[in-house]
Design brief:
This protein has 228 residues and is of the alpha+beta class. The protein has two domains: 1-35; 36-223, Jelly Rolls (Sandwich), CATH 2.60.120. The protein has four helices and 13 strands. The protein has helices at residues 2-34, 55-68, 113-126, 199-202; strands spanning 45-49, 72-78, 81-93, 99-101, 104-106, 132-138, 145-148, 161-167, 170-176, 182-187, 192-196, 203-207, 217-223. Strands 1-11-8-13-6-3-2 form a seven-stranded antiparallel sheet. The chain is globular, with a radius of gyration of 19 Å.
């Protein structure tokens, strides 16, 4: 019986070592891709690429997206009532990339030429395939995004979610679910933020309201929705 327990313990240790080695290899791969250090101290991966698009490119993309996307004011059902979402939103993607969040099913609109061009550049940079994008328009400092994790089952076990910021700077806040460790990042015009690994299991993130005067900001979050 004791020998059996020892064998089981050794097997468990072997599995843990394999898991850790794979995790480190995954992190190393992404460090090489992004040429940047992981900003998260533990339990996940977070990479920031400053000025993924330069200033003229970012200005042009912002103007095109603000004018061309079908921005909508949505509502979510929370605490027994419908509440307006404090920002404008729209969902684009492949025809089968349906997404359910905040209790609402979202059918994707077809890719615009601008979104498709951004998608291709992001995929090339990240060496990942994305079939959808959630666009958010923060009109001023009163618009915000509440604290949450992107952990819906449609996104898979350890999703890679890539966020492009265009327009005015906004604060992006993260905190660990258990340790309460915190990290604040200022996302600027043309910056690309990559969330990967186990981050969504352990960390929550938000874009809080601010009393500072703010001009509009567009955020695109590229995802891969997995079919049932």
């Amino acid at each position: 019986m004791r020998l059996t327990q020892i064998i089981r313990s050794l097997r468990q240790l072997e599995l843990e070592i394999i898991f850790l080695c794979r995790a480190e290899a995954f992190i190393l791969k992404h460090r090489l891709i992004f040429d940047a250090a992981n900003l998260i101290p533990f339990d996940g991966e977070l990479y920031l690429i400053k000025q993924f698009y330069n200033l003229p490119e970012s200005d042009l993309l912002f103007a095109q997206l603000q004018a061309d996307l079908a921005w909508q004011e949505e509502a979510i059902f929370i605490y027994g009532r419908w509440v307006k979402v404090p920002r404008l939103m729209c969902w684009y993607g492949d025809s089968d990339a349906w997404y359910r969040y905040s209790g609402v099913n979202h059918q994707p609109m077809p890719w615009t030429s601008t979104l498709q061009a951004i998608r291709e550049k992001v995929e090339q940079q990240c060496q990942c395939v994305f079939n959808s994008v959630l666009a958010n328009l923060y009109r001023d400092g009163n618009d915000s995004m509440g604290c949450h994790s992107d952990d819906e089952k449609e996104l898979g076990l350890n999703p890679v979610i890539v966020s492009l910021s265009l327009g005015d700077e906004r604060l992006f806040k993260l905190h660990h679910k258990k340790t309460k460790d915190k990290l604040d990042i200022v996302l600027g015009h043309g910056d690309l933020l990559v969330m990967a690994g186990t981050l969504q299991h352990h960390w929550m993130h938000s874009v809080p309201k601010t009393k500072k005067p703010k001009t509009p900001r567009i955020n695109l979050t590229f995802r891969k929705i997995k079919a049932d």
